[in-house]
Design brief:
Helices cover 26% and strands 24% of the residues. The strands form 3 sheets. A 6-stranded mixed β-sheet has the order 10-9-8-11-13-12, sandwiched between helices. The protein has a 5-stranded antiparallel β-sheet with strand order 3-2-1-4-5, with no helix packed on it. Strand 1 and strand 2 form a beta hairpin. Helix 2 crosses helix 8. Bound molecules: guanosine-5'-triphosphate (GTP), magnesium ion and zinc ion.
Length: 307
């Protein structure tokens, strides 16, 4: 019997596939691994597949159906290529927290550039606003305004104040979304708070390092009781932007790309050249200096990779 379904969990060579009648545990034949040399994982959560169910209930994936999109990051542990986090998604949401652990714009900017690259609609959620101190308030407001002015959707919320979750819930409703971010920022806690039928494990962040404990260990596609699906993913330390040529990077930073034509050199990298309109825009505050700093850092990492 041949049926189709959607991958809701992947734990290596076994996949959980949701079909119309039930959830199947399916195996992926080795040949699929040979075919996709550029990906560490040939199938990701959200992928649609054809399945063959044999008499003895053994289930094999026979075909991966075309994706309408995907989001991927650089493979880790010295592996080449990309690691696909999720496929067939409507919105990718990077979750950060204002404290414990404090957000990093470097992570956010790599994520946003990745969304530009894969043509995925992004959003940013800052959680734990109950922990925002007076001292940090001003800087936080500045950062969220920079992103809003760039046209990105920004949410601020706390699981301790349920009404702050409403706008995010509206975004999730009737769509397929994915949460990604560092460990301990509250991705699973937000899911549990938004969907009363979810009771997935969460854990406090380490008081010593202020980092999460990697509580969620594999990506899972979860149906939301109010409509839609959310893929909750394990926390990651760094969101590695997949390798590009260094001179392609500015195309993924709309605020920087906008000035390219005004630079003296048509191929200005905005790192060291004279008469660089980007550097001028940073000096007079038209480009946020943290965005420029993150751009330079990624640019340098691309150059290092080429050496
Ligand atoms: N003060 C405060 N704590 C929160 C909030 N949201 C989550 N937490 C706490 O943060 C800790 C980590 O939450 P998790 O939901 O496990 O974080 P996660 O992002 O899913 O982490 P991983 O699964 O490891 O990637 C838990 O102790 C939560 O109770 C919030 O809005 N405010
Ligand atoms: Mg989690
Ligand atoms: Zn320039």
């Amino acid at each position: 019997m041949e049926i189709t379904g959607q991958i809701i969990q992947s734990t290596g060579s076994w996949y959980k596939v949701a079909c119309e009648d039930r959830i199947y545990d399916a195996r992926l034949p080795g040949k699929f691994r040979l075919k996709s040399r550029l990906e560490t994982n040939p199938i990701a959560v959200g992928d649609k597949v054809s399945l063959e169910v044999l008499e003895d209930e053994t289930t094999r994936i026979t075909e991966i159906l075309p994706r309408h999109n995907r989001i991927a990051r650089k493979a880790t542990h010295g592996k080449k290529g990309e690691h696909v986090i999720a496929a067939n998604i409507d919105t990718a949401i990077v979750v950060q927290s204002v404290a414990e652990p404090v957000y990093r714009t470097g992570f956010i900017d790599r994520f946003l550039a990745t969304c530009e690259l894969f043509d995925v609609s992004p959003a940013i959620a800052f959680n734990k606003i109950d922990l925002l101190s007076k001292k940090n308030h001003e800087e936080f407001e500045y950062v969220i305004n920079v992103y809003r002015k760039l046209g990105y959707m920004v949410f601020t919320c706390s699981i301790k104040e349920p009404k702050t979750l409403r706008p995010l819930k509206e975004l999730l409703q009737d769509h397929l979304s994915v949460f990604m971010g560092p460990s301990g920022v509250g991705k699973t806690s937000i899911l549990n708070a938004i969907d009363k039928e979810s009771d997935r494990p969460v854990a406090s962040v380490s008081s010593y390092s202020n980092k999460g404990k990697h509580t969620t260990t594999f990506a899972e596609l979860i149906p939301l009781h109010f409509g839609g699906y959310l893929i909750d993913t394990p926390g990651i330390r760094e969101f590695g932007l997949i390798g590009l040529e260094p001179d392609e990077l500015s195309l993924l930073f709309p605020d920087i790309d906008r000035y390219q034509e005004e630079c003296r050199y048509y191929n200005c990298s905005h790192t060291h050249e004279p008469d660089c309109a980007v550097k001028d825009a940073v000096s007079n505050g038209d480009i946020a200096s943290f965005r420029y700093k993150n751009y330079i850092q990624i640019y340098k990492s691309f150059e290092d990779e080429r050496r």
